[in-house]
Fold these 2 entries.
Entry 1:
Amino acid sequence: MTASQPERLRVDSERPYDVAIGDGALDDLPDLIGADAQRVAIIHPTTLASPAESIRKRLMNDTREAHCIEVPEGETAKTSEVAAFCWRVLGQAGFTRSDVVIGLGGGSTTDLAGFVAATWLRGVGYVTVPTSLLGMVDAAVGGKTGINTDEGKNLVGAFYEPRGVLCDTTVLATLPDNELRSGLAEVIKCGFIADPQILDLVEDDPAAALDASGPVLAELIERAVRVKADVVAADLREDSADGVGREMLNYGHTLGHAVERVEQFTFRHGAAVAIGMCFAAQLAGLSGRIDRALVDRHRNLLQVVGLPTAYRPGVWPELYDAMRLDKKTRGDRLRFVVLDALAEPAILSGPDPALLTAAYAEISR
Ligand SMILES: NC(=O)c1ccc[n+]([C@@H]2O[C@H](COP(=O)([O-])OP(=O)(O)OC[C@H]3O[C@@H](n4cnc5c(N)ncnc54)[C@H](O)[C@@H]3O)[C@@H](O)[C@H]2O)c1
Ligand SMILES: O=C(O)C(=O)C[C@@H](O)[C@H](O)[C@H](O)COP(=O)(O)O
Ligand SMILES: [Zn+2]
C-alpha cells in the first residue's frame, strides 16, 4: 500500500507556487530550499520549538547549516523589535541572497517571517509552513506579510510571495479549540464572498467542521485555499482596476482590525473578523443590498461554530478612529467590503455616518 500524496493547489501568481495540503507535505521542503542555499533559518514560536528542531535536524547536512529563531507567541511576535531581533540573527549567521527563511507557525509567525524574508537584503527565499487552520487557509498563502504598530494591524509590510506553502494537516491535532474556531471564521468568509458550498458544509454538520482530523474540515481547507489562490493570482497587489479584486478577502476586516486594535491585539483575529462580518452584513442589510435572511445567516452560522457575533457598546469613537487607518481607506473616505448578494462582494465607499452607527447599534445591543 502506498501512502497518499498531499493535494497540490497552484497559485498562478507573478511567481507561481503550490500549496501542498496533507500528510507528507513537508517532504517538499528540501526541493523548495534548493541546492544553492548554504543557510536556512526556521522562524517559529516557543510552542513549536520541538517540530522546529526536527526540521532543523532534517535540513542540516555537510554543505548547509540550519538555525532556529524562536520568537514570541502569536500577535506579540508582529513587532518591529522582534523583526529587528530576526535581522540581527540573520546578520550574525551571515545570511546571503541565496539563503532561505522558513516561517513555521500560525499566521502571526508567518506574517513576521515573510516580512523578515522580504526585507533582509531586500529579499531572500521564503517558504511557509503554516501550523494553524487560519495560517493554512489564509495567512500563509498570497504574499501579504507584515507587522503591527501601536496604531493598528499590519500597518508595516510588503507583498512578498513564498516559494511554496506546506500544510501538514496532522499538526492541527494539537491546535487549541479556540484557534480552530478562529481559523474557521476565515473559511466562512470565503463562503460568503465566493464559495457558498462552504456555508452549506458548515451548516450541515458544524461539529464535523470543527473535527481537525475529519474529512469535512479537509474539504473546507481545500475550498478556502482555492478561493484565496484564485483571488490573489488575479490581483496580487490589491490594486485591481477591474471590480473588487483582492479587497474581497478583507470582508469583515475593516471593523475586525479595529476591534483588534481597541482590544490591544489580545483578541483572536478570526473572532474579530466574525464580528466584522456581522457588521458588514448589517451595513448591506440596512442599505437594502441584501435581505434579512442573508444578514441572519451570518450570525447563525458564526454562532453555531462558537464565534462571537456581537461587540460591546460605547466604543464607537475608538473603533472609528482605528478604521481611518484601514488600508482600504482613501483620504477621509472609509471603504467597506459588503455583499450585493451571496458570493457577490462589492465596495461600499464613504458610507453615511448614520448607516455606520446604525450597524454598530445592531451588533452591540
Ligand atoms: N497575511 C495574510 O494574508 C493573513 C491572513 C489572515 C490572517 N493573518 C494574520 O494571522 C494572524 C493570526 O494567525 P493565527 O490565527 O494562526 O494565530 P497565531 O499565529 O497567533 O497562532 C495562535 C497560537 O496558536 C499556536 N499554534 C499554532 N499552530 C499550532 C499547533 N499546530 N499546535 C499548537 N499550537 C499552535 C501559536 O503558536 C499561537 O500561540 C493575525 O496576525 C492575522 O492578522 C494574515
Ligand atoms: O489576503 C488578503 O488580502 C486578506 O485581506 C486576508 C485577510 O484575512 C488577512 O487578515 C490580511 O492580513 C488582511 O490584510 P490587511 O491588508 O487588511 O492588513
Ligand atoms: Zn484575516
Entry 2:
Amino acid sequence: MSILIENISKHFGHFQALSPLSLDINEGEMIGLLGPSGSGKTTLLRIIAGLEGADTGHIQFGDRDVTNLHVRDRRVGFVFQNYALFRHMTVADNVAFGLAVLPRKERPSPTEIKNRVMHLLEMVQLEHLASRFPSQLSGGQKQRIALARALATQPEVLLLDEPFGALDAKVRKELRRWLRGLHDELGFTSVFVTHDQEEALELSDRVVVMSNGHIEQIDQPGALYASPNSRFVFDFLGNANVFEGKVENNKWHNQQASIVLPNGAEQKDGQLYIRSHEFFVSKEPTAQANLPLRVIAINPIGAEVRLELTPIDWQSNDVWEIDLPHKAFDKNCFEKGQTLYVTPKAGYFFAHDAQQPVLLNWETEKAKTTEKA
Ligand SMILES: Nc1ncnc2c1ncn2[C@@H]1O[C@H](COP(=O)(O)OP(=O)(O)OP(=O)(O)O)[C@@H](O)[C@H]1O
C-alpha cells in the first residue's frame, strides 16, 4: 500500500510540532523517520496512524483518502517501544486480540483464529511460548509477540515507534534483521521512528531526516551518507570533526593550524566537516596539513580504535574523534597525552555564505598527480 502525505502540519497550542510537510511512500517500502528528540517523528507517525489529527493537509493510502478516517478504519498495524502486551492474557490470546475484536461479520471463526495465531507465532519463531504470560517473556520475545499481534489482522501498513528502543544492542540488531526479513517476505509498507542513525541506515529503503518539525532530507541510506545536503544532516549522521578556517594563500588557517585547499576549492572562509575515518595520522605535519592534536582517550570499538583528541594551538568547539583500523593504531603505538598530526583525505566544505556543502577530495588529487607522473 503506498502512502501519500501532503502538506501535513500540526500545532499543540502555540507550538508548531510539524511545519507543512509532504512525503510519498511507495508500496512495500520501509521508511525510517530519523531525527533528534522533539523533531516531530512520533507526531508524524501518529498522524499517519490516525491517532492524532493534522491541522492541514491530507493523507492517502493507495487511492483511499484516509485523512478523516478513524484509526480503527485505517487498518494499520502498530508496534510501540513498550511492548504494550495485555498482561492478563496469554501470548496466544494477545496475538488473537485484533481478530477477536473484529465486528462479527469480518471476524474469522474460532478455529480460523487459532490457526492464524499459530501461524503468526511460527513466523516469529515463538510457537512454543503460546500459553505463557507476558511477564514470563524476555524483552526481545515480548517485542516479537507485539509484532505478531500487529500483523494478525494482515495490515498493509505497519507503523513502529522506536520498536527496539528498550532492548540491548545485540537483541536489537537481531530483531532488526528479522523485521527486515519479515517485511520483505510479507510485502507490507513500513514506517518506523528511531533516533538511532545506525538503525535507520541499516533498516530503511529510504531515510527521512527530521529536525524542528520539518524534513531536512529524504534519501536512500548510501546517498544520505555520501551527499548530506545540510550541516544538520551531516552532523546528525555522525562523527564529523569541524575545522573552522579563514582562507589565506591557498590555505585554511585556524590560529597555528592550517590545511592546503584542494584543487578547485573556492577561496572562501568556512567550515570543513571531516568524518572520523577520513584521515591519515602521523607524528609530524604533512605538506597538506598542519593539524596538531593531543590524544585524550583511546577506545577500542569493534574493528577500529577511536582516538579522542583536543586541538593544540588552534580552536575547535568539540573534541575530535578519529577512527583507525587496529593495524594502523598498532603501527603507530599512540598513547594518551601524546601529540599527533592528522591530514584529511576528504571532507565537506560549508562556505559561510552557502547552505549546500561542496565535497572535497585530496585523495583523487593525489591519484591524478601520480597518474601524471
Ligand atoms: N500532546 C502534545 N501536547 C503538546 N506538545 C506535544 C504533544 N505531543 C508532542 N508534543 C511536542 O511536539 C514536539 C514533537 O514531539 P514528538 O513526540 O513528535 O517528537 P519526537 O521526534 O518523536 O521525539 P522523541 O524522539 O523524543 O520521541 C515536541 O516538542 C513535543 O514536546
